[in-house]
Each structure stands twice: as structure tokens, then as C-alpha cells.
Write a structure and sequence with these properties.
Layout lengths: L6 H19 L2 H4 L3 H6 L6 H12 L2 H14 L5 H23 L5 H8 L2 H32 L7 H60 L18 H6 L1 H11 L1 H7 L5 H16 L1 H15 L9 H9 L4 H36 L5 H26 L5 H25 L5 H25 L9 H22 L5 H4 L6 H11 L8 H18 L2
Helix pairs in contact: 1-9, 1-16, 4-9, 4-12, 4-13, 4-16, 5-14, 5-18, 6-11, 6-13, 6-23, 7-8, 8-9, 8-16, 8-17, 8-18, 8-19, 9-14, 9-16, 9-17, 11-18, 12-16, 13-23, 16-17, 18-19, 18-20, 19-20
Amino acid sequence: MGYNLELIDILVLVIYFIFVVWFGLRYSKKGSSSTDNYFLAGRNMTWPIIGFSLFAASISSTTLIGKSGDAYSTGIAVFNYDLISVLVMVFFAMFFLPFYIKSGIFTIPEFLEKRFDVRSRYYFSFITLLGSTFLDAAGALYAAALLMKLVFPTLSIIELSVIFAIIVAAYTIPGGLSAAIRVDLIQGIILLVGTFILTFLVMQNGGIDYLKELLLKEDLMMKLIRPMNDSSVPWLGMIVGIPILGFYFWGNNQVLVQRVLTAKSVDHGRKGILMVGFLTVLILFVIIFPAVIGKHLFPGLEKNDMIYPKLVIEIMPVGILGLMLAAMVAALTSSLSALLNSVATLFTMDFYVKAKKKTSQKEQVIVGKIVSIIVLILALVWIPFLAKFDSLLKYYQEMLTYIAPPVVAVFFLGIFWKRINRHGAFWGLMGGALMAITTVFLKIVFNYELLGDFHFLLKVPFYFIGSSLIIIIVSLLSTPDDSEKIKDFIWTRKIYQEETEELKGTPFYKNFRFWSIVLIVFCFTVLFMYQ
């Protein structure tokens, strides 16, 4: 599919790119002044900025391109990943976030060192760097290039990927997270406006009648709860698989959690998470529903991942088309800018500063910038391999199935059980890695599925339970950690009671617990409506 944009649409795109780079560079000097400013935006962000920034950063290639492609082929069940993850966000904000912010960490692996030891920190930081480079960075560049290939068919995927890499690098690398967050705020707003406009136009083009028809026929396309043999999201996988992957994405993912670490207080961090929870529910209406309607408007697409770009280019009128293309590019570049800063932080704080004890803040910032450039180059080199997967979503989910469970097990057991020690955590991570490597090796070399040929969501709890057993057994068979050293990283009922006392007298509309309940009720209402 190739299209010729009108001059006004091209102007909108060009003006958008220029504006984004200019707006980001405005904060370059301030962002580079110290490690706190460059890596964590001065730790002074308020909840609305955190919320919009998180939303823009979370709408990655797997969301905009991958999930819409999955919805096109199998229906709304793919939204379960978002719906269950919103419930996970509430849990994360309630129990884990305060520990992250109060500990003053720069990276999530750094928290593992504070709770356990440096071995766990190095391992988790290493696999996060690999995942950010070969899953997220390469995926974001590939998706953006795939989109622009429609309107610039003479350019190759690699050439377009290079262009996007340069655009994002232009404001992210000089200004750090301070620049990235402020650009994300603008891009989050543009994304919401653009997706709402597209949804409205798709509904006007017979979309409402088509959705009504599917609902009246009780078509499987409009059901969130699916049978066990469903290829998209079997009901049991929704219960036992998605929560683990969702927690890894929102609670252990440096790319997203780093934005929460910029909060000026725990309360602002929590409200930022809850805000992005409400915004995430909108994905059903502005991404999933239009993709389902796309099945009616444009049946038989050769590649499912192209449905959302197809809708944009076919449905959007002249002028607004340029805005919507800008919105889609905003989503993809936001996720890329987020992970560039996160990998720069990870390498600098978890490896470089550890290896070279006496480093100035200026030197650390310079190292972070160099790492960002290297990651972009590696991601560009990896892009040709991505084209071999059926969809971006399948590629991302399959990799996450192996990476996430051991890490989530370590964090959960470490926070809620003081008897879990540094040896248990490290060997639990190693055991999880061994299971993952064995699974991938058998699949690639012998085409053999270690746990059987069934849905990957149903495999997730096996990796989680296996790692948990190793963590528990090794911990119980070895000497407990110093209770005085780890007491500030263990959740207790006393913490909940102290928070309850602090919230007394707070108006309900300013109480994060009230909005947590509202968000939970909202999620279950949606689940009930489309069961």
C-alpha cells in the first residue's frame, strides 16, 4: 500500500517533527546539569505530567500496531492485557511504589541490591538492557518505519528507521528525561486527540451499526472472556498469566517506572499511576474498537499489523490525516525516547559507576549519552530480524514469557516475606534464566515445546512457580539476611496503618485510595459488559 499525501498533510508532519525537536531541546541545558536532572528530571514532577508521560510512553509499537492487528484478527480479547494490567497498576501503586520512591533509587535493579545484593542487580540490569534494545527500541523503530512506509513507499524500512532514530535522538540524548517527559506530555495529548478523531470517523462510517450487529449476535469478536482453546486469550491465561506479565511491564520495567521515580512525592507518583490507569482503559475505545471495525471495512488484509495505519490513511480527511500520522508517530517516538533514557540510566548507574567509583556527574551524563547512541545503532541492526515474526505483538509476548516470571517472583517474595534472602533471590533468577534458555534452545534446535504446545499465557505461571520454589528453598536452607539492613524494604501491616492515619481528613477526591476503588470498579464493569 502506497499513498501520496497532500501538501498540507506533509506540512503538518514536518512542522510536528520540528516542534518536537525544538521543544525537547529547550530543556537540554537544564536536563544535562546533573545526574538527577538528566536521568530523573530533578525528581520534581507532578502527577498530571507523570500520568500523561506514562501513557504516551506505554503506547508502544506493541500497543498501537500489534494490539490493533490482533484485534483485527481475533476481536477485543487482546484488551485483556490492558484491563488486567490496570488492576495490577493499582496493586503496584499501593504496595511497591512507596518503596521505590523512598529508597531514592535511579534504577529498578538498584532496588534489588538494596533488598538483596549486587548479584541480583547486575543480572536484572543486564537482561533489562538486552530487552530494551532488542525488544523495545528495535520494535518502536520498526513500527514507525512500517507506518511511514505507507506514505513514503520509495524509502526502505531501514532508511525510515534511521530517520526516526535521528529525530528521537535529537531531543532525548541532549536533554535526558527532563526533555523526554515534557515532549511526552505534548505527544500524549496529541495522541488522545488524534485517536478520538479517528474513532469518531470510523463510527460514522458504519462502525456503530457493525459493533451493534456483533453484540446482538453475541459474536466471539466482542467477548473479553474466551474459552480455554481460544488462540488469543484463553480465560485461564487471563487469570494466571496476564497479571504476572502486567506486573513486570508496570512494576519492574525501567522504561516506565523511571518516569514514576521522577515524582516529587509518593502521593504524586501514585496519582500519576492511577491517571494512566484511567487513560489505559480508553485503549478499548480508541484502538481496539476501530481495529475490529476495520475487519468490516477492510477485510482480508495481507498483514494484520497494518490495520490501524490503513484506517488512518483511508478514513482521515486531508489536513487531519497529517495530524493523525503525527499522533501515531508521537506514540512510537515517545516509547523510544523513554527507553533510550532508561538504558542510559541502567548502564551508567548499574555498571559504569560501579566499575569506576570516582566519576563526576558530568562524566556520568556523557556516558549516558554515548550509551543511548550505541543502543540506537544496535536496534537499527536488529530490525531486519523483526520482519520474520508474524506480528510485533507475538514477538514481544513470546520474549516476555521467558523474561518476566522469575523477576516478578523475586520482587513479590522479597517485598512481602523477610525470610527471603540474597542467595534465594540470585539463584531464583538464575534458575529462571536456565529454564528460559532451555525452552528457547529446544524450540529452535529440535522444534520441541518444553512445556507442551499450548497458549503461552498458560506457560507463564509454570516459570513463575518454578522460580519461586527455587527462591524459597534456597532462602530457607541458607542464613537469613540482616533484618536491620532489610527492614525498610519489607511491607508490613504497620505501613498500611500509618498511611491510613496520614489520609485522615484528606478530602475523598484527593485520596488515592478512593480513586483506586473507582478504577477497580470501572475495570470490572467493562469486563462484565463484554464477558
